UniProtKB/TrEMBL annotation, chain A:
<feature type="domain" description="HTH gntR-type">
    <location>
        <begin position="9"/>
        <end position="77"/>
    </location>
</feature>
<dbReference type="Pfam" id="PF00392">
    <property type="entry name" value="GntR"/>
</dbReference>
<keyword id="KW-0238">DNA-binding</keyword>
<dbReference type="InterPro" id="IPR000524">
    <property type="entry name" value="Tscrpt_reg_HTH_GntR"/>
</dbReference>
<keyword id="KW-0804">Transcription</keyword>
<keyword id="KW-0805">Transcription regulation</keyword>
<dbReference type="InterPro" id="IPR036388">
    <property type="entry name" value="WH-like_DNA-bd_sf"/>
</dbReference>
<protein>
    <submittedName>
        <fullName>HTH-type transcriptional regulator YhcF</fullName>
    </submittedName>
</protein>
<dbReference type="InterPro" id="IPR036390">
    <property type="entry name" value="WH_DNA-bd_sf"/>
</dbReference>
From TrEMBL, chain B:
<dbReference type="InterPro" id="IPR027417">
    <property type="entry name" value="P-loop_NTPase"/>
</dbReference>
<keyword id="KW-0067">ATP-binding</keyword>
<keyword id="KW-0547">Nucleotide-binding</keyword>
<dbReference type="Pfam" id="PF00005">
    <property type="entry name" value="ABC_tran"/>
</dbReference>
<feature type="domain" description="ABC transporter">
    <location>
        <begin position="2"/>
        <end position="226"/>
    </location>
</feature>
<dbReference type="GO" id="GO:0005524">
    <property type="term" value="F:ATP binding"/>
</dbReference>
<protein>
    <submittedName>
        <fullName>ABC transporter ATP-binding protein YhcG</fullName>
    </submittedName>
</protein>
<dbReference type="InterPro" id="IPR003593">
    <property type="entry name" value="AAA+_ATPase"/>
</dbReference>
<dbReference type="InterPro" id="IPR003439">
    <property type="entry name" value="ABC_transporter-like_ATP-bd"/>
</dbReference>
Amino acid sequence: MPIEFQQDRPIYQQLMDRLSNEIVRGDRMPGDKLPSVREYAVDTGVNPNTVSRVYRELEQLTIVESRRGQGTFVTEDRMRLNQLREELKERQIDRFITEMKQLGFSKEEMILGLQAKTKEEGN
Amino acid sequence: MISFENVTKQYIKHKALNDVTFNLENGKVIGLVGENGSGKSTTLKLIAGLLRTTKGKVLVDGQSNVDRKISYSVAYMSELDHVYPFFTVGEAIDFFASQYNDFNQEKAEEILSFMKLQKEQKVKTLSKGNKGRLKMTITLARNVPYILLDEPFSGLDPMVRSAIVKGLIRFVDLETQSLIITTHEIKEIEPVLDEVLVIRDGKVLGHQLVDDIRCDGKDVVGWMEQLYEEVQIHD
């Protein structure tokens, strides 16, 4: 299914996030093969050049690795994947804190709010 | 590479292009955008060798002053109907296969089934959308380095537009081909574009990578609106 993209960020960055999220969630496991460039381009409705760039940049971040003649694979380096998981967590937390601060909430209020919310959800 | 060097194209009194210079690199999907009458189609026709410049040079892979012989390396899809109505879809494919040495019949069959067209259907009974699909099939089935599409979405409903975009992604091989599209339906095609060239009143107003436009927190339409405003201020 073609994806709806945000208008104000490069598409390759949005696809990098999407793949990173899928990897952290476990939808794509360590060592899994990613779709071919063309396949993924058709699936997501973007230019194959964009997908090439996504794979290239993820490879530079050592989240995926390309094997000559075989394709691109999720790294099997668990340490790196744990680190990615932490990075994504921190990014979300930073975002949350920034917006709460803009609304004028104190640190204590944020923590209390989170605690109340997680109790409500039962985990 | 396609290069325009100080190109002017004048129709009697009206200058469709006015001293225009730019380069288009290979292996990309490039959108030529702008209002009606801005000079987009003229640009495409000059590349296809259907028009000659009044002044300046158009170079395709270094070959200057292109004429209709360039059709060996350029597939041009016009905005108008160009398939004889008395053909069936299959006959139309055979006809174009006989006209172009580079026509890939196998690929044509693949695209036909992707576009869900039946070979037995008569061209004259095809809906507007299916005519659009057939034109695309014929154009994309050619193994040529340059594919030019003039307003491929105009007058087509969203379903057909989306089928055409998917067909482009699937069947254009950017390792050996380049794609140049004129359109004003930018939203639809934006995820597929590498770069955009904005033309207005026969002049190039802007030429940018889509990624760079988005890095500034805008989409292509927003960027164009900004360019237009800047021009109005200077007017």
